[in-house]
Amino acid sequence: MDYSPRVQRVADQIQRELASLIQLELKDPRVGMVSITGVDISKDLAYAKVFITVLNTLSNDRGFNSSTLSEPGALDKLEVEENLKALNKASGFLRTMLAKRLRIRSVPKLEFRYDGSAEQGQHLSALIDNALEADRKSNWDE
């Protein structure tokens, strides 16, 4: 979207403050390692879509990790859904905390959404690597 410089500055500030608030202030055990990848704000600053990625939380038990994760770095959809539910439920609290930290007249209503771009990037990178490997093998055969 084409944002005015002010809207972009507010979005960047909300992203930084939310990252800090989620890490330090949010006590919900359902929220794990969450990274905020972006914030889209409406032009009137009334609504904000907060895009997140969720990092897998590994336990100390290697057997448990290998049975729950299909491959290293694979995201468990249930874990993502639980994090989104918890963050959307805590959006009012986070909005109140943002109001104390930001110097704007009204803080936008927060809606948390999953950002699958990192996962898509890994998939595309794997496809490119496979294509290059297949090309190398076909050049060896000739």
Folded structure, characterized:
It is a single chain. The protein is 54% helix and 17% strand. The chain has 142 residues and is α+β, with helices and mostly antiparallel strands. It has a single domain, classed as K homology (KH) domain (GMP Synthetase, Chain A, domain 3). Strands 1-2-3 form a three-stranded mixed β-sheet, covered by helices on one side. Helix 1 crosses helix 4 (91-101).
- What is the CA-based Rg, rounded? 20 Å
Q: Helices and strands: which structural class?
A: alpha+beta
Poorly predicted residue ranges: 64-73
Number of helices: 5
Roughly what percent helix? 40-55%
Class in CATH? Alpha Beta
Label the CATH architecture. 2-Layer Sandwich
Query: Which percent range describes the beta-strand content?
Result: 15-25%
Can you tell me the overall shape?
elongated
> Count of DSSP E strands?
3
SSE pattern, N- to C-terminal: HEEHHHEH
State the oligomer: single chain
Mean of all residue-level pLDDT scores: 84
Architecture blueprint of SSEs:
Elements: H1 5-24, E1 33-41, E2 47-55, H2 62-68, H3 77-89, H4 91-101, E3 109-114, H5 117-141
Parallel strand pairs: 2-3
Antiparallel strand pairs: 1-2
Concise account of the structure shown:
With 142 residues, this protein is an alpha+beta fold. Helix content is 54%, strand content 17%. The protein has a three-stranded mixed sheet, covered by helices on one side.
Keywords:
GMP Synthetase, Chain A, domain 3, 142 residues, alpha+beta, 3 strands, 3-stranded mixed sheet
